[in-house]
Amino acid sequence: MSFLRAFFARPQTLAGFCIFSAIAIIALAAPLLFPRGPFTIVGMPLLPPGASGFAAGSDVLGRDMAAELAFGARISLLVGIASTIVSIGAGGVLGAVAGYHGGLVDDLLMRVTEFFQIIPSFVLVMVLVAFLQPSLASTVLGIALITWPQVARVVRGEFLALRQREFVAAARMQGLGAGRIIFGEILPNALGPIIVIATMVVGNAILTESALSFLGLGDPNLMSWGSMVGGSRSSMWVAWWTMVLPGLCIMVTVLALNFIGDGLNDALNPRRGR
Amino acid sequence: MRRLRYILSRLVKAGLVTVAVVLLSFFLIRLAPGDAATVMAGQAGYADEAYMKGLRAEYGLDQPLPAQLWKYLTAVAHGDLGTSYGRGQKVLAVILERLPNTLLLDAFALAVAMGGGIWLGALAARRPGSAGDAAVSLASMLFYAMPQFWLGMMLVLVFSAWLGWLPPFGIETLGADYAGLRRVADIAQHMILPGMTLALYYLANYARLTRVAMIETAGEDYVKTARAKGLSERQVARRHILRNAMIPLISYAGLQASILVGGSVVVENVFSWPGLGTLAYQAVGARDNPLLLGIFIVTALLVCLFNLLTDIAYSIADPRVELT
Amino acid sequence: MRLDRRTAMGAMAGLLAAPGAAAADGRRILNAMMTDEPATLCYPLNNTRLVQEICGNINESLLLFDWQFNPHPNLARAFAMTPDGLTYSFHLRDDVAWHDGVPFTARDVAFSCGTMLPQLNPRSRNAFSQIARIDTPDAHTVIFRLKQPFNAFLLSLMASSAPMMPAHIYEGADFRSNPFNFKPIGTGPFRFAEWKRGQYIHLARNEHYWKPGQPGMDAVYYRLCPSPEQRMVAMESGAVDIAMADDIDTVVTSRLTANPGIVARADAYNGTAEIVVMELNQRRWPFSDRRFRAAFLHAVDREFLVKAIQFGQGKVAHSPIPSTAPYHDDKVLTKYEYNPAKARALLDAMGLKPGRDGMRHRFGIMMQPDGGGVMTRGSQYIKQALSEVGLDAFLEATDWPTQLRRSGNWEFDCDCNSYGEYGDPAIGTSRFFLTSNIRKGVPLTNLQGYSNPEVDALFPRAAVAVSRQEAQACYSRLQQILTHDVAMLWLYERKPMFFHNRRLTDVITGPNGPADGFGATRPA
Question: Which CATH superfamily does the domain covering A2-35+63-268 fall into?
Fold first, then answer.
């Protein structure tokens, strides 16, 4: 109860939560709402929103923009969540181990994360996706590869702080192994910041996926908001909605996620300020 | 003396990072199916085996992997980043051709973002909780959530397609061959939209950082003392609050510079800006491995340089900070 | 909220003093664009539209053609044909020199038509294979003796098909590795000046050009402009003066046609008479079955292709000979109207029943690498139309080298292409249906493997027919057979738009459009 009250303390968190839920529902229900799918040509091209029953208009091929936007939501959310899971998984484990053990392991991790900060990460993910052939899997992998370092740093920080605490010393005295301590004792206490950073990572992942699709490096058989914007480069000069609407969807989704992250931060980390 | 030793140690570190970059990229790029000879032959329009064998020998692609790696590392140590597959020019030459365009755009974006951001942030800090303050917060959230390519295209839609005020593509007017001051003005005009696209996200963040830092510092003792001494509000703001708020700003500026130099691929693509980002994108499409490797290395070195400069600026701004 | 477009145009034109046709030093410059850099500037070697348009300024042909396709003197000041149609004599001008100063003589003509063009250019090979002998009794006379009369012989000398090449540069050496492929020498109004890679190709005025008063401009620049929106903006803002066939995407042509400062020509490519087609590899089943091909055409709404994909710039094609070209005969054609039910019935009759997923057959459509433009969109629509009758087509994206290699080596199920007729079916159409033109490894030939002995007999007969009625009778029968056989999937006739800035005049002077060069162009 107190969690919910703290979570919804700010009005924008409520707004964000509602908006994100709506988007998620539309994404899940897309095949029911638009049984013909997003790729079917259903009318004349470049109809403005509202014309001939197309609420969001039609694109340069005559497809229903509303269907495309709904199916695009599926890709954005899928890639966002999948790459976050991989990223949190990998970054979390590595950061936990480094933070707990300290010393050489920690040094090594720090050097590796620094390395990832120094190289141009977007170029790296472009190279990876292009060379592995653009697909859902390569996109998820690529995004996870460039986001895990920041997750690792946060988790490491948490573990560094928490390992000094009494309950950890107590657990060690009980003879528990490092693995049990990391995952059984410390992790539950570190969950708060991890969850908050997860929402940020999802937001970043959605932005990165849309940038890759925009450049034509997304899965060509899937409808994505980024590829919609990328495909509208000519048509936007005569039909603004083909470019504006998909980008608006991306922005609103990421914004909603950020508000949710703020709310979670309020609820889970009351000690820390903003 | 200590500063010198610090700089040297950072240079060594940069060198190690370069080697790591080369190793990583070298093997990463080998992931690509099909070798460079096939790609180059395809581009030239021939496809016979003899020609491709000749290409492989010329570029040393028929050597065993460790030999290729060693050859490359020694070449890099001498400043030779190899030859671009698709263009036939030296990689370093191609990069140096495009680098100034990116640096120019980044410098402009940095200046606008810092200047505008600090000014807005200071304004907001003066009246915390006001509508202006809320507006700055909202703007910063919006720009944070907005995809950069979309922001760029929106600016093109409004300022080029609808209003016709600014040119949407390229670095200068195609075919005009301006010179001197007219050329400078032409380039400046072309720089506005892409520069603003890059700047707006960071501008909002600078505003927020400035605002927070100034509000916090405003509560500090030495500021209260300064006010008690009779200094005007503006003098207090300038001499004390801003100076101390600089530190997080400097570190953010360094971060922005690092991100910009390696990350403006998308914005350069939207505006067809002929910089390093566009080069990287073309190199990916052409599977031009030497060029890609070269871009990785140059970018990494530049980032190390910016980090070093940031730390030095940091230590100047706040003598309490130790250089370790 | 949105400003009136005209105001916007005006504002655009006012951008930092739009560069005019006059450069700072008073030179009259013509700015055109290229979508990507050509592989070489040797037109016989690189037979693409872009090279044709650039080299149209550098190389010329013996004859020029007017809007009715009648020949007129050009490099040949006079020409004649014997009544039996077996001998053509050309009397060359004696005041023409190559850009390097060497005089243009009969030797160049004999070399070009006898050796270089037939070797490199499949269209020329077809046309010039009729030549038995070329005589050059003196430096300014060329006599062609044909094996049989060929009524399209003069048309085959159009600039786009037969540019004259310098013998003193190319004779005796390997054509492909000649350095002059990158700095071409011709007789035309402009000479090659500079090729700045990644930026532009610069042609300069030929001071010693033989046509008085020409060229009207001092220089032509072809500026590299890879993205279609960039090209549109460059045209609208006046940064470039000319937008050629593939420069502007059909999506945005409406913006340019509405622009008061721009002239739009729909007839600039009449000489090419292009048809957009799909080719099926008829060596593979089920493409070898005529019913499959008919079903394909019934399944696709070609009117929609023209209206929605080409945005109205075209016309449905029902014949291998375009409706605007001579010998087109509407009466004999078998037409395949849009009728998915008929398509399904044909496929059922063939034994191609739908499987569990509703699909009868899966095959690949090899797309053209046009960066998401008209051809890509067309392919996407066709894929959908086919799926509605149970044909599962997957789209294959390629790049140019791959496309040329795969099509030449017959490694495809279905591909997209567009072919020009170039004035006469004997030049542009026969090459796709003759058994003798089935050549592995060579693109732009009879890639489908279509073979019909009656067709093989009719095409040459039509080409050598002495009277027009006889030729028409042959071509009518050919159209009847080919459309009945669905020898190729003709989609629509394409009318590419040509745009130029209103400040220039005499830009398009004949049906060849830019392929005839910009010699006559001058500021308005």
Answer: MetI-like (1.10.3720.10)
Please indicate if any CB of chain B lies within 8 Å of the CB of C221.
yes
Q: How many Cβ atoms from other residues are within 10 Å of residue A135's Cβ? A: 15
Please state, in angstroms and rounded to a whole number, the distance separating the CA atoms of residues C354 and C362: 11
* Integer Cα distance of C1 and C301 in angstroms: 38
Q: What is the largest CA-CA distance in chain B?
A: 86
Residue type at position C372? G
CA C389 – CA C361 distance, rounded (Å): 10
| Cβ-Cβ contacts under 8 Å for C239 (sequence gap 6 or more) | B173, B174, B175, B176, C18, C19, C31, C233
Do the strands C71-73 and C63-65 form a parallel or antiparallel pair, or are they unpaired?
antiparallel
d(CA A265, CA A196): 6
Closest alpha carbon to B141 in B85, B190, B200, B99: B200
Query: What is the DSSP code string of B105-163?
Result: HHHHHHHHHHHHHHHHHHHHHHSTTSHHHHHHHHHHHHHHHS-HHHHHHHHHIIIIIIS
Q: Are A230 and A72 in contact (CB under 8 A)?
A: no
Closest residue in B to A246 (Cα) is: B150
Return the residue matching tokens 């600016």.
B155
**DSSP annotation of C330:** G
B41 or A253, higher pLDDT: A253
What is the SS3 assignment for C43?
Answer: coil
Within an 8 Å CB–CB cutoff, is residue A121 touching chain B?
A: yes
Cβ-based neighbour number of residue C259 at 10 Å: 20
Among all chains, which residue has been given the structure tokens 């294959």? Answer: C396
The residue written with tokens 């050309």 in the block is C90
Residues 32..51 of A with a Cβ closer than 8 Å to C: which?
39-41, 44-46
User: Rounded distance, CA A267 to CA A271, Å?
Assistant: 10
A53 Ramachandran zone, left/alpha/beta (phi>0; psi -120 to 50) = left
Domain segments of chain A as ranges = 2-35+63-268
CA torsion B21-B22-B25-B31 (nearest 10°) is -150
Which chains touch B (3+ CB pairs under 8 A)? A, C
In DSSP notation, C376-416 reads: HHHHHHHHHHHHTTTEEEEEE---HHHHHHHHHTT--SEEE
CA distance A248 to chain C (A): 19
Residue B71 has pLDDT above 50, yes or no: yes
Per the CB < 8 A criterion, the answer to whether C264 and C498 are in contact is yes
- Beta strands C242-243 and C262-265, pairing class: unpaired
Are the C-beta atoms of residues C232 and C256 closer than 8 Å to each other? yes
Cis peptide before C215 (omega within 30 of 0): yes
| Residue pLDDT, tens place only, A147-194 | 999 899 888 888 888 878 877 788 878 887 777 777 877 788 888 888
Cβ-Cβ pairs closer than 8 A, A with B, add up to 128
pLDDT digits (tens, 9 = 90+) for B209-246: 888 777 777 677 666 777 777 777 777 666 666 666 67
Whether C16 has its CB under 8 Å from any CB of chain B: the answer is yes
> Angle B148-156/A241-268 helices, nearest 10 degrees?
140
Distances (CA, A) of B268 to B102, B108, C236: 9, 14, 22
Chains with 3+ CB–CB pairs under 8 A to C are: A, B
CA-wise closest residue to A155 among A147, A81, A115, A140: A147
User: Among all chains, which residue has been given the structure tokens 């042909």?
Assistant: C61
Residues C159 and C53: their CA atoms lie apart, in Å, by 10
Cβ atoms of residues A190 and A175 within 8 Å: no
User: What pLDDT is stored for residue B318 in this prediction?
Assistant: 67
Contact A234 C251 (CB under 8 A): yes
